[in-house]
Design a protein that fits this description.
Elements (H helix, E strand, L loop, with lengths): L14 E4 L2 E4 L15 E4 L6 E2 L2 H10 L8 E6 L2 E7 L4 H12 L14 E10 L2 E11 L10 E4 L8 H19 L2 H7 L12 H21 L6 H8 L3 H10 L3 E4 L2 E4 L3 H10 L19
Parallel strand pairs: 1-3
Antiparallel strand pairs: 1-2, 3-4, 5-6, 6-7, 7-8, 8-9, 10-11
Helix pairs in contact: 3-4, 3-5, 5-7, 5-8
The protein binds acetyl coenzyme *A and zinc ion.
Zinc ion (ZN) binds next to loops.
Length: 294
């Protein structure tokens, strides 16, 4: 059950307070009607409950006993932790997260049916608790080969590589599901390739293009170009269409005798790799502490 698209509506909440940040919002988000007259909302940074007044938040903080997102911690490396939140077990949290996220997502449908989703919430942790940096969501049993429904890095944390980290983590968690768990899922999903849910925002496309570019160019370099798009897709689980578009945007595709041919001049590849920017934060596979959703 999807709510109709809300993106044409006028922005209501102008700023939010979340942990130690005051953040200006970007877009309309369909908060319940009693919040219609609010310019500013105060979020508990741990349970994501939101309130109209600072005093309400202060009262809440005295009794809220969460110090991290609900759900399982599935990754820890240094001060970074990832929590997996089942929307069915933590419905209110899931809904709160969607309200919050929509403030920074333009043309995304908001899912009220959070039951069907898993939320992966990335946090920077210190002695005060685990502070949300961003998240991505994933449909539990997706009919399509989408592997990521929504991705967000909160504005104060943007352009630090977290977006690429989230994308890489999403791919990696899928691979681990393939490898370690649920033999029947394995056979069902084997050979299934992923692509993010459309439409992608401009920033979303930039982040994905950057990620795909790095992954693809690294392989092209290693194989000196002797590889087909189909083979690239099998190796990376990136959809062939996304590979073709990415390589085309880099002008690495030529059309010869009715076939797409990849041009892989090492000098050209190196130039593109440099331009593709930083690799982002690395996901350290050995830091996964994994109990998958069943
Ligand atoms: N201007 C230009 N390029 C940008 C910008 C920007 N403001 N932000 C990100 N990029 C590009 C850059 O190429 C950057 O790499 P670089 O820093 O090495 O040059 C690359 O994207 C990724 O940067 P990260 O630091 O890894 O990503 P970040 O943590 O900033 O998160 C994200 C990217 C998630 C898209 C963030 O901008 C965001 O949350 N935006 C609002 C929500 C959104 O649009 N989400 C995607 C919707 S589509 C979907 O959900 C499937
Ligand atoms: Zn709380």
């Amino acid at each position: 059950l999807r709510e109709h698209e809300e993106f044409t509506k006028v922005k209501n909440i102008a700023t939010i307070e979340l942990g130690r940040y005051e953040i200006e919002t970007w877009y309309f988000s369909p908060f319940p009607p009693e919040y219609n007259d609010c310019l500013k909302l105060y979020f508990c940074e741990f349970c994501l409950n939101f309130m109209k007044r600072k005093e309400q938040l202060q009262r809440h903080m005295r009794k809220c006993d969460l110090k991290h997102p609900p759900g399982d911690e599935i990754y820890r490396s240094g001060t970074l932790s990832m929590f997996e939140v089942d929307g069915k077990k933590n419905k209110v949290y899931g809904q709160n997260l969607c309200y919050l996220a929509k403030l920074f997502l333009d043309h995304k449908t908001l899912y009220y049916d959070v039951d069907l989703f898993l939320f992966y919430v990335l946090c920077e942790c210190d002695d005060r608790g685990c502070h949300m940096v961003g998240y991505f969501s994933k449909e539990k049993h997706s009919e399509e080969s989408y592997n990521l429904a929504c991705i967000l890095t909160l504005p104060p944390y943007q352009r630090k590589g977290y977006g690429k980290f989230l994308i890489a983590f999403c791919k990696l968690s899928a691979v681990h599901l393939f490898n370690f768990h649920l033999a029947y899922e394995l056979s069902k999903k084997e050979g299934k390739v992923g692509t993010p849910e459309r439409p992608l925002s401009d920033l979303g496309l930039l982040s994905y293009r950057g990620y795909w570019t790095r992954v693809l160019l690294d392989i092209l370099k290693k194989h000196k170009g002797n590889i087909s798009i189909k083979e690239l897709s099998d190796m990376t689980a990136i959809k062939a269409e996304d590979i073709l578009n990415t390589l085309q945007s880099l002008e690495l595709i030529q059309y010869r005798k009715g076939q797409h041919v990849i041009c892989a001049d090492p000098k050209v590849l190196d130039r593109h790799l440099k331009a593709a920017g930083r690799g982002g934060l690395e996901v350290d596979v050995s830091k996964l502490i994994w109990t998958p959703y069943k």
